[in-house]
Design brief:
This protein is of the alpha+beta class and about 250 residues long. It contains 4 helices and 3 strands; from the N terminus they run αααββαβ. Strands 2-1-3 form a 3-stranded antiparallel β-sheet. The protein has a domain of about 100 residues: Fusion Protein Consisting Of Minor Coat Protein, Glycine Rich Linker, Tola, And A His Tag, Chain: A, Domain 2 (2-Layer Sandwich).
């Protein structure tokens, strides 16, 4: 029981001291805080001064001050021309002319007729008739046969000569026994009457016996009978082929 009482007393003393400390702390805060300076002072900076030493320059020559220019003479003031006053004349009123009215009833003379200028009539220029030039004369018509007629007659004559030579040709025995065949192309020259004047081999068959037999056939043939009037003077050579074939 006594222990409880002593413990209670100690708690009361502790509570009293705690209250006293709290009061003192509040009083201290109330006194100190209003007088406290919250501004922070900046740190003190040391100033560094640097002196520049200028090098010594050579002494310059003394400056020569130029003399002041002489004052310019003032230009004379030109007098301005006086303005010319215009004298205005008063406008005099002119009398009004009254229109002249014809009071007399006398007839006026008629106006003279206009002059008539006579102009000489122009001479009529009659057109001159120019006769057209005469037409050119017609070319003389050929009285002889035309080219187409000559070509047709030449072709017919060649075919007739070809058949005549075929009928009069003889196969050489030497070439026939050896079985030699070939074609001989001949060039025959003729005159206006149809007579044979020359025979030459234009293309050989390769065998002399066949070539000679073709020339002999021309000499045995009568080609004059096939010449007609159209070919006279228009043909002097013909080319024919004589063939030798074994059956």
């Amino acid at each position: 029981m006594e222990a409880l009482i002593t413990h209670a007393k100690s708690n009361e003393h502790l509570l009293v001291w705690t209250l006293i400390c709290s009061i003192l702390l509040h009083v201290l805060i109330a006194v100190v805080v209003p007088n406290f300076n919250f501004t922070t002072e900046p740190p003190i900076q040391q100033e560094l001064t640097i002196e520049l030493v200028q090098p010594k320059m050579p002494e310059a020559a003394p400056e020569v001050t130029p003399a002041p220019p002489a004052p310019a003479e003032p230009e004379p003031v030109k007098e301005l021309p006086k303005p010319i006053k215009k004298i205005e004349k008063p406008i005099e009123p002119q009398p009004i002319k009254e229109p002249v009215t014809q009071t007399s009833l006398e007839p006026q003379p008629p106006a003279p007729p206009p002059e008539v200028i006579s102009v000489a009539p122009k001479e009529e220029v009659k057109p001159t008739f120019v006769a057209p030039p005469p037409p050119p004369p017609e070319p003389p018509r050929a009285t002889g046969p035309s080219e187409s007629d000559i070509d047709a007659a030449r072709s017919a004559y060649r075919n007739q000569v070809q058949r005549e030579l075929k009928r009069n040709q003889r196969y050489p025995k030497v070439a026939e026994t050896r079985g030699i065949q070939g074609d001989v192309k001949l060039e025959i020259s003729i005159d206006d009457a149809g007579n044979v004047t020359d025979v030459t081999v234009a293309e050989s068959s390769g065998n002399n016996a066949l070539d000679d037999a073709a020339i002999a056939a021309v000499k045995r043939s009568d080609l004059k009978q096939y010449m007609n009037d159209i070919l006279r003077g228009h043909v002097d050579k013909i080319t024919v082929t004589v063939g030798f074939k074994l059956a």
